[in-house]
Design a protein that fits this description.
about 260 residues; alpha/beta; TIM Barrel; eight-stranded parallel barrel; 8 strands; about 50% helix; about 15% strand; globular; binds phosphoenolpyruvate
């Protein structure tokens, strides 16, 4: 059975004070909720500059910490870049790769995502590879073609799919308040699992697939009720402790239902 996973992508938000406040609330709930923790993995991905603080705060908890990106290079003259190995040495567990904002604002190609994925795996980080179509692509009936190409581009030559997490994040749903319907999300997750199965049928059944795109406490239960939605990658709602905690709680409820 695939364990639920809820990951908060804090994007370029936060200050030392807000990180302390947000994690303080989540850690109080974490201590109080042993049963939830057993059924769901939770992680937060702050900016690079807040990683060390978040790691210190989360050290005794079940909340893991990840980065929002990493370099495809190991070291060298790459001003502004951060190597996967540095993140692993710091104590990060996760790394988000190929987020649509990286693709859009930093022109990240599938080849670059593939190189970052290789670097992350080599460093021992657990990658979350993001895929998703734009509104124009969905309206043109190209959503599956686009997602298949992103998967193929990032995963070609990749072994060990079981340890990989794929986040389906339709670009039109990110930060817009528009969420894919549970049926739209499940359809794409089924399709993604099929694409993964073409690479490795056994591992594909174990790969966790997250949905992301305007997830909030109010809409998450129906999404988590879908058989191929194993959790969520959460942006805006991850910055509000009660919202993020409610999403974790909903994932725990769904995990219990799926196991019955
Ligand atoms: C994201 O940035 O990965 C995301 C899903 O954002 P939001 O939840 O705000 O749509």
């Amino acid at each position: 059975m695939r364990q639920g996973l809820v990951v908060g992508n804090w994007k370029m938000h936060g200050s030392r004070a807000s990180v302390e406040a947000l994690l303080g609330s989540l850690l109080d709930a974490d201590v109080a909720q042993g049963a939830v923790v057993a059924r769901v993995e939770a992680a937060v991905c702050p900016t690079y500059v807040h990683l060390a603080q978040a790691l210190d705060l989360c050290a005794e908890s079940s909340i893991a910490v990840g980065a929002q990106d990493c370099s495809h290079m190991q070291s060298g003259a790459y001003t502004g870049e951060v190597a996967a190995e540095m993140l692993a040495e710091l104590g990060c567990h996760w790394v988000i790769l190929g987020h649509s904002e990286r693709r859009q604002y930093h022109a990240e190609s599938d080849d670059l995502v593939a190189a970052k994925l290789a670097a992350a795996v080599e460093a021992g980080l657990q990658p979350i590879v993001c895929v998703g179509e734009t509104r124009e692509q969905r309206e043109a009936g190209e959503a599956q073609v686009v997602v298949a190409a992103q998967l193929q581009g990032a995963l070609t030559g990749q072994v060990g799919l079981a340890a990989l997490v794929v986040a389906y994040e339709p670009v039109w749903a990110i930060g817009t308040g528009l969420t894919a319907t549970p049926e739209q999300a499940q359809d794409m997750h089924t399709f993604i699992r099929g694409c993964l199965a073409d690479i490795d049928a056994v591992d594909a059944a174990a790969t966790r697939l997250l949905y992301g795109g305007s997830v909030k406490a109010a809409n998450v239960a129906q999404l988590f009720a879908q058989p191929d939605i194993d959790g969520a990658l959460v942006g805006g709602a991850a910055l509000v402790a009660e919202e993020f905690q409610a999403i974790i709680d909903a994932a725990a409820v769904a995990a219990e239902c799926h196991s019955e």
